[in-house]
Design brief:
Elements: E1 2-4, E2 15-20, H1 23-34, E3 38-42, E4 64-75, E5 81-96, E6 106-109, H2 128-141, E7 144-146, H3 148-153, H4 156-166, H5 171-179, H6 183-199, E8 207-209
Parallel strand pairs: 1-3, 7-8
Antiparallel strand pairs: 2-5, 3-4, 4-5, 5-6
Helix pairs in contact: 2-6, 4-6, 5-6
Amino acid sequence: MVFPLRGVILLPRSSFPLNVFEPRYMALVNDALAGERLIGFVQPLAGEGDAESPDGKNVALRGTGGAGRLIAWQEGDDGRYLITLNGVSRFTLGQEEETSAPYRIFKVDWSHFADDLIQGHGEEAVDRTRLLSVLKEYLRVNNLSADWEGISNSSNELLVNTLSMISPYGPEEKQALLEAGDLKTRAEVLVTLAEMELAGSDGASGSTLQ
């Protein structure tokens, strides 16, 4: 079960809340709940319009996505779902299956991302000091606040993956973060993106980074 969603990536052991209201994806959630509760997220290819989640089954998708397990769900008074997924592993998109379901189903290959299943794999190589230094400067320049107690208590894996998922970058940058070979590389991509933005930053309005 694949949920095409532009600007969204899902990484191992990081949580992702989602408000589901389109009938096709409410059907997807219902079927996921009745099965293994796994949902894959894949971004549409560049050039496939600018819709957040394009209609139809002919939209070309990127070759790498991320899967999550549905760990919490709540049905609203209007029938829509508020769900939370926890990232499990990335995957390579394979052949699409023909189905009468209103959503898309693909065969996927997990083999290239076996290390995603190992909690904390590679986090000792992350330059946490540099990452936090750049994060503090990014927040300062953009007049943002953060939960520093929560950040301090986060493992390198959770910190890097969560920052990658909530980062305010576009689809191309998000895909680069998703496809990074390991946590060290992903952290370096985060730092590079932040430094590039800081180099041309003129400040922003205040907010809070959770």
